[in-house]
Each structure stands twice: as structure tokens, then as C-alpha cells.
Amino acid sequence: MKALLHPTYFPSISHFVTIANKEIIFEVEDNYQKQTYRNRTFIYSPNGKQLLSIPIKHAKGTGRRKYKDVQIDNGFSWKKQHWKSIETAYRTSPYFEFYEDEIAPIFQKKHRFLMDLNFETIELISECLQFEIEIQKTDTFQINPENNIIDFRSLVESKKEPIFNFDNYIQVFGDKHGFIENLSIIDLLFNEGPNAISYLESQPSL
């Protein structure tokens, strides 16, 4: 079965559960919306759930912008801040050093468009998981997708999430704050390493 999904920044585990279990078509023709996973992700810091947000250039005028046209505001040192936060959160995790050299370089590159960066994070994590993903994209926007496509675009909403009841796995600060579900895929990767793909494939279908 095919699934319609937004490309997001180091996607949440719910996104990757879908990616691991469905044939994915990525929505690239919609309008940009603020405060979604399009430009944010959550990690598990020493103080609990931490937001990593990408600054976006403001659009001229008041019209809506296509998601694919949204540009990153690289006037801020946000990549340096994100990587420092990730290091602080996961330096002591079982697999941080194993994947560090693969993931760190993306924070040294300069990306112009948000969507390009998001696709690169998806491809990067897929490589780390040794998981093949075919990037299929929409060519028109449809409010209601075709009958053979399941609409998972609502997973992009970061403020109206359902409870997914994913299986617990060991998290670095779990003893301090308890298990936090549906964080960025990097939380699962750094904690579970090669077992991450088996975890994703074993979760109940969304």
C-alpha cells in the first residue's frame, strides 16, 4: 500500500515507521505551514524533550508559499547549535560514535531550501539504517489522494500528535525523565543502532 507523507527534518519515529512499512510518496506541492515538523524535530536532552528548530526566511508579501520554495535563514548559527545539542544529548548513547562521522557533515553544509535539507536527512538516516528508500514525489496537490494511497500528511503536525503507543526502548536519560515516544529518528538510531530498522518494522501500522 502506498502512503502520502511530508518530507521533514530528521523525521519523527512515526514518520520512519511509515517509511519502513509502506511505499512512500512525498508531498512536495503543498503550502508551507509554521510550527510543524517541516522545520523542527525533537530530541531527548539531559533536561527532557528539546526542540530543534530551523530558522526560515520571511516571505515578502502576505501570500502563501509553497513548501518547496521556503528558504532557510542561514544568518543564524543554527546548525552549530543543533549539532552541539545533539552531542550533549547523545554523546554517551551506545551508538553515537558509530554514526557520528556519517551524520556530523550535514551540519557543516549550507542548504538554501528547507525541503532539500529535509530530503537529505531522510536519505542520510536511510543509509545509516541500511534501508533502501525510493524517493517518489507528488506532481500536483490533492486534498484527497487517490483510493490506493493512505494519507499520512497529518503526521507533520507537531502540536496535535496522537499517542502512538510505540514500544519502549532504552533512552540515555530515561531513568531521569521516563520514556519519551516519537522523538526524532536520531534518538532511536543512537540508542538502538542496527536494531533500529527491526524496531521500526515491528511497530503496529499507523
TrEMBL record:
User: What's the protein here called?
Assistant: WbqC-like protein
One Pfam annotation reads: WbqC
Q: Which domain of life is it from?
A: Bacteria
Q: Record the organism.
A: Zhouia amylolytica AD3
- InterPro entries found in the cross-reference section: WbqC
